[in-house]
Amino acid sequence: MATTEQEPTGAEAPAVAFNLELNADQKDIRDWVHGFAEDVMRPAAHEWDEREETPWPIIQEAAKIGLYSFEGLAQFFADPSGLTLPIVNEELFWGDAGLGMAIMGTSLAVASIFGQGTGEQIGEWIPRCFGTPDDLKVAAFCASEPNAGSDISNVRTTAKWDEAASEWVLNGQKAWATNGGIADVHVVIASVDPTLGARGHAAFIVPLSEAKGIEQGSKVSKHGLRASHTADVHLDDCRIPAGHVLGGKEKLDERLARVREGKRTKSQTAMQTFEASRPTVGAQAVGIARAAYEYALDYAKEREQFGRKIIENQAIAFALADMKLEIDASRLLVWRASWMGRTGHKFENAEGSMSKLKAGEVATWATERAMHILGGNGYTREYPVERWHRDAKIYTIFEGTSEIQRMVIARAISGVQIR
Ligand SMILES: Cc1cc2nc3c(=O)[nH]c(=O)nc-3n(C[C@H](O)[C@H](O)[C@H](O)COP(=O)(O)OP(=O)(O)OC[C@H]3O[C@@H](n4cnc5c(N)ncnc54)[C@H](O)[C@@H]3O)c2cc1C
To answer: Both 289 and 377 in a single domain?
Structure first.
């Protein structure tokens, strides 16, 4: 990235257009979230990982201070540089990834409503995704299905329009939904016209408390992120009002008509949400990697073997140097993509995918290195590093696996339909 310095004016420091120094607001928010991560999340992380349950008391603590709220998320998003949202995510996931996902899992549904909803839908549904500290709610984004993971165009859940009742009727099974079945608001990706593949998809709001025919299927028992609830969701003749399609029915009809005429439309419904959220997901992976790196660095400076600290061995010191290097490189890619997304720069070279790919792979690698530096202790549940390693692995799988990110990048840079 080029720096463009303006001419110095008198004794004042030159104004620079490019700057990596965080401003006072960004630093304040970072330190505030770090405090919550250190004081509330870290002490509770092991317990909730073992319990494998949604940590409602922790979400409530976050809600009480405004960290888990519509207003909080809006404030983080409002930063015109785009950096506050990844900074918040990095700190939260530095605290703990399972608890972090329990707090941030709602934001994928929020991103979908915000990105595709009408003003009225945004005003009505986003506050309901969070509830209030006394009546907490979470939200779920349900795109994946048993046979539609990487290949989201294979979604089989249908949304049929019942003209007589003026309602949508949804049928199908969603898989691996974060907060699936416990969320108040489910954003469900369904096919309105299966002949159009992903271009025939639309996003629907299904409120658990009002809609009949939606229920949780099996809860998934996981390798990591165990404090975050993941489950299948079944939709069985689930009826919702006309106005629950994001963007409105009129706009959907217009879009489908354009697709049928062979005209270009905006990218696919689920992909729009994933593109926007990838840098944020990358920031979460950076947080986990940083936690493991810091822990391993401290450990290596304390632990003695052969009469010296293990960090005095190049093998250990160089591993830590590489970890720091890769984590910082990941963060820079995340910040670049976040800045591009917020300032309206198009991801010409799939910069969002680059950030998520790099950060996910670095988190998986760095947490494994950290475990190794701790030796036998690293492999036990007495130390947090093995949990961080289990948590990190999902970052090469969800929101597009590493192979899918490489495919997206390869297509973007080449213009060739790489398979
Ligand atoms: C903890 C967790 C939380 C999740 N939360 C959500 C959620 O909230 N909402 C939601 O909708 N989904 C969610 N998911 C689903 C997640 O997004 C999918 O698991 C992911 O997209 C991968 O799909 P899949 O599991 O079907 O793997 P598959 O698509 O079956 O892939 C299996 C393997 O094949 C590779 N592969 C597939 N196609 C290609 C190709 N063309 N080229 C090269 N390699 C390929 C993949 O990279 C992977 O290694 C979650 C999953 C988990 C585990």
So the answer is: yes
- Count of structural domains, the chain: 3
CATH code where residue 203 lies: 2.40.110.10
Q: Whose CA is nearest to atom 22 of ligand 1?
A: 149
400 C-alpha vs ligand 1 centroid, how far in Å?
A: 6
Q: Residue 316 has which token pair? A: 């250990």
* Percent of the chain that is helix, strand, coil (3-state, to 5): 55, 15, 30
- What does the pLDDT look like over 177-211, one tens digit per residue? 999 999 999 999 999 999 999 999 999 999 999 99
Distance CA 52, CA 72 (A): 26
Residue 218 lies in a domain: yes
Domain's final residue, options 212, 240, 261 = 261
Q: In the chain, which residues have pLDDT < 70? A: 1-14, 266-270, 272-273
Model pTM score? 0.95
Mutate to test the pocket of ligand 1, among 174, 357, 401, 411 (most ligand atoms within 8 A of CB): 401
Using the Cα atoms of residue 72, residue 78, residue 79 and residue 85 in order, give the sign of their dihedral.
positive
Ranges of H-type helices in 37-96: 42-51, 56-64, 70-78, 84-95
- Alpha carbon nearest to ligand 1 atom 42, residue: 403
Active site residue 361: no
Say if CB 128 and CB 209 are below 8 A apart.
Answer: no
Q: Which atom of ligand 1 is nearest to the CA of 407?
A: 42
Of 217, 205, 184, 179, nearest in space to 269 by CA = 205
Q: Whose CA is nearest to atom 41 of ligand 1?
A: 419
